Amino acid sequence: MQEFQQQQLAFIRRIKDPSAPLPPGIRPERMAVYEELFFNNVQNFVSSAFPVLRSLLPDTQWQALCRQFFRDAQLHSPYFLDISKAFLLWLPEAASQLPGFALQLAEYEWLELALATDLAVAPVGWSFDPDRILAMSPLVRLCCYQYPVQQISLQFQPTEPAAQPVFLLLYRDEQDRVRFLQLNAWSAALLQLITAEPGQHLGTYIDWLQPYVPEWNNQQLLSQATPLLSDFAARGIVVTADGKS
User: Which of 5, 183, 189, 243 is most buried, judged by most C-beta within 10 A?
Assistant: First the structure.
């Protein structure tokens, strides 16, 4: 039994790293079939999950990066989303090989994938009423980045962080399409309050928000927040948490 387990471990080591010793009794050409099959599957999963990042790196660098991930990361799940998440969690180990924006771009791309595959049902839009208690749709992600990750492409690759934080809201609409909106600082703070403490009325969130926006009084904040939340309610981003339609 112990010999069989050792054979299995040697087989796994060789699949993950072609420079490892060949397991006893296995011909190189037969082993190469397994090596190529497993690695190509993982590389295809990762490439599909991070298409923009993939497009920015030369083929040889991308393949080397995927090879390094396949060799070093501990993969315990066959599910596509789990493999891409493992890559995202591992990627900081290779940060020195990548552009400065790469880690934030990868997170943004993975959030798009996670939203697209989330099993939650997209909420139906509703007519906003400030007297209703509020919550955020489960199909919303709030993000803050140093780089404008939503703009990065072959034609635009920033070398320095943006002058101001980039606040983004990702959501999945009723047609199951993932979309994004860019927020300013106060609207991002308002949505973060609703996310952190759902089940309050708009007036309560305005009271909590006002110290962070001292240039506006509560009435001015309310006049800015009401049309914003009306739009977000229609999109299904903000939902009512009182169980009423």
Answer: 183
Domain extent listing, the chain: 2-98, 134-240
Calculate the CA dihedral of residues 143, 147, 148, 152 and round it to 10 degrees.
Answer: -120
Q: Which CATH number fits domain 134-240: 3.40.50.150, 3.90.930.50, 2.40.50.140, 2.40.240.20?
A: 3.90.930.50
- Show pLDDT as tens, one digit a residue, over the chain (245 residues): 456 566 666 656 666 777 767 777 677 777 666 668 888 889 999 999 999 999 999 999 999 999 999 999 988 887 888 999 999 999 999 999 999 999 999 999 999 999 999 999 989 899 999 999 999 999 999 999 999 999 999 999 999 999 999 999 999 999 999 999 999 999 999 999 999 999 999 999 999 999 999 999 999 999 999 999 999 999 999 999 775 54
Q: CATH fold of 2-98, please? A: DNA polymerase; domain 1 (1.10.150)
